[in-house]
Amino acid sequence: MSSWYAHNIEDGVKAEEVTSDLVNHYLFTAGVPDPDLIIRTGGEMRLSNFLIWQAAYAEYYSTPTFWPDFDRDELWRALVAYGERDRRFGLVKTP
Question: Is 15 left (phi over 0), alpha (psi -120 to 50) or beta?
Answer without folding.
Answer: alpha
